[in-house]
Amino acid sequence: MRIEKRISVVILLLFCSVTMFSQTFVEDVEDFLTDMVLISNQYVSPAADASVYQSSASWHHTARSLDKFEFDVSVHLNVLPIPKKQQSFKVSNSDFIRLTLQDGSNSANIPSALGGETNTFFDFVIDDENYEFQAFEGVKESVLYYPYLQVSMGLWKETEVTVQFIPEIKIDKSGYQTFGGAIKHNISQYFRNENTTDGFELAGQIGYSKFKSEIFFDEFVIESTSPGVPPLAVLRSLNVDSNSWLFQVIGSKRFKNLEFVGSMAVATNKFDYTMGGDDGIVLNLLNEAFKALEDSNELVKGNVGINYYFGDFNLTSLVSLGKFTDVNFAVHYRI
Prior knowledge:
15 strands
């Protein structure tokens, strides 16, 4: 398998010229890292998907385009409730090569990065030394809030460009940062019978966003059960770096001051993961092994929303429906 091959190469490169480590130690560490990557994959996946929903929440609020060189400046609050099924996952002893659940348990539900606390421990042996560690814990939040600013400008041919750049925002100890851009083109202009502001509008949009998050959890120590033996690793955070391309079709219909909006979107995503903590050989090996998790996936989601217009302002509420239910509130001002 790809993960096991990568771990074997990493182990070989780091240990082939080091004689102080026994062959048993090297093989045991290889098995341990394989188990850790398996756990980490299920631990980080919900947070990675959540980052896509947060970073692609509201590239649009209508299918209509701004007039040429007209600006729309908006303040957003993104609200992401975390579903119960994304807060934990099940593991069994049969899933692992070296790890076993402590206290004789055969299976357990443990938190994902979006979950909470746990008292689940694992035991394992490396080179005849007994070790234990507590399962990762999550952000301990049932809802994630993410405020940001956005600016759009109208161009020629009913085309509109939108940009986001948000400096790092701290929520508790965790931090979030995003930037990107999108371009929207109105399709209705090609079959519109007359120029009306109250007709049905259709548009297509392509967007790119880069979302970085650093999720801190309680100190996670992989330590020996024997006194005086230094820990193998101390971990404190998970970094998720996602690059997302968004393709969507948008429809909207205005009735006087109210406008109803709907869209279907496909997001193609590339994720990179890194664990933070005290520097050491196991942490370095784990992060090298994490490169096996750096993959791409696709998400499909629908969006429904409503706008209320008054003067040069409008209030927007947009809900994204899919693996997560994401809600975005915004105030827009047109210049």
